[in-house]
Specification:
2 domains, 11 helices, elongated, three-stranded parallel beta sheet, 285 residues, D-Maltodextrin-Binding Protein, domain 2, six-stranded mixed beta sheet, alpha/beta
């Protein structure tokens, strides 16, 4: 038996060759410390939110829990402690860049400009940008935003997409900057703005979770496509591979449907686009 064939059979019988190599970079640090730091958003239900007492919950949070368990298995650890770090829309990317967290588990849209400073996992969801309005509003479509006061969190992809949509249609609107989803909803409730712009399912979660849940509705039209992904540090291929292994394995199983039902089931079944996302990203080993 040749030396090359013997090496091949050893790899095939014991471990996949791609996993036999010692982990490098942050993944090696995680193994050495036995701790993984995961960031979550305080108030972005149903994806990422605090139930109180630093108890994160939501669709993206559950995906990160599954990824952390997959990383524990891949590293051969008996235990891997999860340290949850509360973030907001303003510091979520910088927390990944400066190492405060290893993975950000929220509602971050994967864009090429953001990928200049951070990296991303496989996509975790596909949403669209739209506007939450009061039930008594006459606004139905993007064209109806003309001359209206629309709140948005600056620095988000929604801000840029809204500006582009208004420009494309030749519309003028008074765009009001707010510091958080909660502030945007409060201004809308008080009648100080005509709408609050964000991702569709974020707005659904805000509306359903508010005291006046029956007082709001969404426009019938989206103005952007928002592909979500877990945010990772740049230059860490081993960590990215480990995260994607965990997500791909999850997408190949029935567990992803159970996670969807738990956090998003009120909205019906996964859309054809989301089902295709799961199917196409169930990458084989």
């Amino acid at each position: 038996m040749s030396r090359l064939l013997a090496a091949f059979m050893t790899c095939a019988l014991l471990l996949p060759c791609a996993q036999a190599r010692e982990p490098q970079g942050i993944l090696a640090e995680i193994r050495s410390a036995g701790v993984i730091r995961l960031g979550y958003l305080e108030a972005s239900p149903p994806f990422s939110f605090d139930q109180g007492g630093n108890r994160p919950a939501g669709y993206s949070v559950e995906l990160c829990r599954r990824v952390a368990e997959a990383i524990r298995t891949q590293l051969g650890l008996a235990t891997l402690r999860t340290q949850w770090v509360k973030l907001d829309l303003g510091n979520r990317l910088s927390a990944v860049r400066d190492g405060t967290v290893h993975i950000e588990c929220g509602t971050t849209t994967w864009t090429l400009s953001r990928q200049e400073s951070v990296d991303f996992s496989l996509m975790t969801f596909v949403d669209g940008g739209t506007v939450l309005v009061r039930n008594d509003s006459e606004m139905l479509r993007v064209a109806d935003l003309k001359d209206k006061r629309i709140a948005v969190v600056p620095g988000t992809t929604t801000e840029g997409a809204l500006a582009a949509a208004l420009k494309r249609r030749g519309l003028q609107a008074d765009v009001v900057s707010v510091g958080s989803h909660a502030e945007g909803l409060a201004l809308l409730e008080a009648g100080k703005v005509d709408g609050y712009a964000s991702d569709r399912l974020i707005l659904v979660g805000l509306g359903l979770g508010s005291e006046g849940a029956g007082s709001f509705r969404l426009l019938d039209e989206d103005f952007s496509v928002e592909p979500y992904a877990l945010t990772l540090p740049r230059g860490e291929p081993d960590l990215r591979l480990a995260v994607n292994r965990g997500l791909a394995r999850l997408y190949r199983s029935a567990d992803i449907e159970a996670i969807f039902r738990e956090w998003l089931g009120e909205l019906g079944r996964p859309s054809m686009l989301l089902a295709a996302l799961y199917y196409l990203q169930g990458i084989p080993e």
